[in-house]
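During the reporting period the student researcher (J.K.) took over the structure-prediction task from the postdoctoral fellow and processed the backlog of single-chain submissions. One of the processed entries is reproduced below for the supervisory committee.
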Amino acid sequence: MNTAIFTLPLHTNYGGLLQAYALQEALKEIMPGQSVCVIDRKKEWPHIPAWKWPLCLAKRSIKKVLGIQDVIFVERQMQREWPVISRNTERFVRTYINRWEITSFAELNRDEIDCFVVGSDQIWRPMYVWKREVETAYLSFAENWKVKRIAYATSFGTNKWEYTDKQTEECGKLLQKFDAVSVRESSGVELCEKYLKRSDVFHALDPTMLLETSRYEALFDKAETLASEGSLLVYILDQTAEKIGIVHSVSQNLKLSPFYVGVKTESLKAPPEQRIFPSVESWLRGFHDAKFVVTDSFHGCIFSILFKKPFIVYGNEKRGMARFDSLLGLFGLKSRLVMGDVKEEQIRKIMDEQIDYDRVHDILNREREKSMDFLKKTLLE
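J.K. obtained the following structure tokens:
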């Protein structure tokens, strides 16, 4: 059987890359010898019609003079510098992910696909889907195809309904065609039932948790990745004074040396050499080496749990809180979550609280078995 994974584009997001890799590997384990690929849209750059350029150029020039905008021809700069800043993450994709790159869904051959697996990540959140056409994540382009359709650990990212009435109606019809549906957050089960009229929805683990930790260790071992230069891992997507304050507090109290995984800056003002994303393997090695983790990332939480590290996570409202609530609630770790103006006493309490990782991984193993059983039953029946 030829199985195609439909997920968000494979760019430079470590969690996004690793969830695609993990789901691919889990499917290959269930169906040895079968073809499994990940559909990926080729990166498209913002395009401004020729007739809009004079007005756009004038506005940007004024903003540059006023110090509001630094780059006038930002689209050209982004396209020119992309191969540089993405070279490490792109190498991981080329090495470990069987990618089927397309520019249009019309390029997909219905005769070459027997099964679609939609997931994971926030593939069902309109703001993250290409051109906000969330219907494509329900396989609207293959509506009349005779194929198996599975949703695995798909995510709305939030417990609030963000679809228009038209999207709700269309996606609800498309979801009825799915052979099996699972979502990543517990709140997603309720959203599917209330708005999309699908009541047989399973709550599944994020794909990254389907693989044993040793599988990730093998990746950075194979790459001969150097040891991390510190003991306090910091993975912050949206830097704020509050988060930096937490890093400083943990570092001072536990006598740990901070080291940052991820890109140093995404500012277009910086030279591209300073915006190169480190390798996926070095990102993974960071969790292995860390004695403590400070993050505002959902997958930062996941890999802290997989590698059995004490951690503090700063809730990321804009990127979606339902993910954190569901994950941490499942493992009884909600006390590790902080938001807003965090007090020193709260940080100290979290640092002093030991995580019973024997208990946590007992839960993980049970949930991993349930999630794999869901996939096996659906794929092999």
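The committee noted the following: The radius of gyration is 21 Å.
J.K. will present the remaining backlog at the next meeting.
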